[in-house]
Amino acid sequence: MHSRIHHFLGIKLSYRKIIFLSVFFVIIFIFSSFLATVFLLNNENFHDWQFADEIAPTTVINKAITQNSISEIDTSQIKAIKLSHQDDELFIFDFKSDDLSGTAGSLYAVYNNSEKKLLTVIANPNLPPGEKLFQADNTVNNKLLCLNITQSTKNINLVSRSKYCYQNNSLIHVDETLAQVN
Asked: What's the whole-model pTM score?
């Protein structure tokens, strides 16, 4: 075994080089694990709807209901997505209410963790397979992630992506692009 270590790949290595290479590979492993974790955590920001009471503070949910509906809403049916960046969190609410939906789509409201409404939008959740209605953009503006809202177009091969960024205490529409559907 001793001679195997010293003659790894036909290269004669001293104990110092063996220790250096071992530490180097451990550092590379830790760094790549860290990057993978950060990537997965960032991507879990966008994703699947969960029951609002599992991810959002009750005070934010109650404020969203009060400000967006005049009828009784079953709070156990409200779904939400939580987007996090540093200390800030955004909550996107889907009220799952017939009173807040129509032929154009459903009402969605975006709040921050301070109970401030940042955006209200009517969007159609019927999208081509693989498309997400809401996704965080990699752009950060005023310490908050920008938000992309995807919508179908009349052309079945294209979707529209509207970009909203935080400015003046709300999410403002700043860009719109068309993207090819796979």
From this structure: 0.70
